[in-house]
Amino acid sequence: MAQLMNWPWRAWAEQAPERTALLDGARAVSWRALSDEITRRAAGFAFQGVRPSDTVAVRGKNSTDVLLTYLAVLQCGARVLPLNPQLPASLLTELLPDLNVTHGYCTEVGYAWPVPLTLLSAQADGAAELPEWRAERLATLTLTSGSSGMPKAAAHSFHAHLSSARGVLAMMTFTAEDTWLLSLPLFHVSGQGIIWRWLLAGGVLALRDMHPLDEALRGCTHASLVPTQLWRLLGHSGDALSLKAVLLGGAMIPVDLVEQAEARGIRCWCGYGLTEMASTVCAKRADALPGVGLPLPGREMKLVNGEIFLRGENMASGYWRDGHLIPISDSDGWFATRDRGVMEAGELRIVGRMDNLFFSGGEGIQPEDIERVLMQHPQVTQVFVVPVADEEFGQRPVAVVEGDVEVGELAGWLSGRVARFQMPVRWFVLPEVLKGGGIKVSRRLVREWVKGEC
Ligand code: 4YB
């Protein structure tokens, strides 16, 4: 699409009104019907008092209702803050006032917001003037996971989201004939990345019950997956999939995983992205190397003392707090990621997060180095190495593993594959309680859980 002059759904409704925009389960919705419904909701929201510059929290798992609300809030000119329904009330009580949230929308009937908000209904009709499309307008607030526990809200303009989408689509073809499954949550930047690529290309977006994943993928050509989802898919689905392309990201992507997927006819792209950069920054078509390729068009990357710095049009305008944007970049526009990386064989390889590094008897341990080796075990699908306090060594590594494997056997398997000081001193199975919610298991929660067990 050339430079956008209108809300993208309205532009597509003018250009291709009868073409399918959305697959809601098995029901096809045209661009005209979609655009009409978004505009009706937006007018209703404006009638209920949503003004440009307000912030509307939208709480819910992925659904057509949440998607339509997200887009309608944008058409009101307001900022949308998608919320993971698993965030505890205590966190929302602290967070929402700082983010100046004025209105709330929740898919759960009778949900009691822990702070005073004006509740919105999607049913209410009303005539109200709606603002014009402006690409520079702040559109979304997306919460970071944050190692301290209190998330920050990265504020992106439409321009940033569309630049992100343009960069990805310069590498992966996604046309009006293709269907991208909304395979990751809208409250995470990876889910929003799917939305903006869909809106840019005018393709089809599929909203499905995600369990089981192989059924959700039926008829879809594109999906974004975290590595654990792809492991599960390979484990469960026997038949060929209609997938043309899977964009992987969010965590270290094992070479074994993409090799197995490619052998089953699933074409993989390996990406590296962050909330602050509105998803993907670097990516490549999967190959036998563990890197994530090079920056996509519109992004730049540099390494300073091993730390990855990024800049580009897709960067957040700042963190939103108390009605202000707090800058996230230095005076030259560079954002310090706190990720360690190296250039290897002409591409970037992610080493791990600087904040994860700990010391054991004077030796530095980057947990991801040990995790990478453990992920090579054929039965391990996910693993976290975290420190526990130790009188003699200061800290020592402990492993928390997911997979169809006896954790007792893993110590033997690992011995000789890592240095002695890297050898975990205890092994645990990843408990279900740590898996809920977002797209990733929180390393901070794993650490806290292990502390309670040791
Ligand atoms: C990585 C990493 C990697 C991130 N190796 N560590 O559209 C996409 O790009 C997408 C597709 C599929 C799945 C996820 C995505 C994303 O957007 C992921 C974006 C994300 O994870 N954002 S985050 O703010 O929650 O976390 C960012 C952190 O995740 C980075 O700072 C890295 O530490 C880590 N990470 N990709 C190793 N390929």
Give a description of the structure:
Helix 1 (8-15) packs antiparallel against helix 2 (31-47), helix 2 (31-47) packs across helix 3 (64-75) and helix 5 crosses helix 6 (189-201). This protein has 12 helices and 26 strands. The chain is α/β, with parallel strands linked by helices. Helix 3 links the parallel strand 3 and strand 4. The strands form 6 sheets. It has a 9-stranded mixed β-sheet with strand order 2-1-10-9-11-12-13-14-15. It has a 4-stranded parallel β-sheet with strand order 4-3-5-6, with helices on both faces. Strands 7-8-18-19 form a 4-stranded antiparallel β-sheet. The protein is globular, with a radius of gyration of 22 Å. The mean pLDDT is 94. It folds into 3 domains: 8-134, Rossmann fold (3-Layer(aba) Sandwich), CATH 3.40.50.980; 179-354, Rossmann fold, CATH 3.40.50; 357-453, GMP Synthetase, Chain A, domain 3. Bound molecules: 5'-O-{[4-(2-carboxyphenyl)-4-oxobutanoyl]sulfamoyl}adenosine. 5'-O-{[4-(2-carboxyphenyl)-4-oxobutanoyl]sulfamoyl}adenosine (4YB) binds at residues 144-145, 184, 189-190, 193, 224-226, 247-253, 271-275, 279-280, 292, 337, 339, 350, 353. 5'-O-{[4-(2-carboxyphenyl)-4-oxobutanoyl]sulfamoyl}adenosine binds at residues 144-145, 184, 189-190, 193, 224-226, 247-253, 271-275, 279-280, 292, 337, 339, 350, 353.
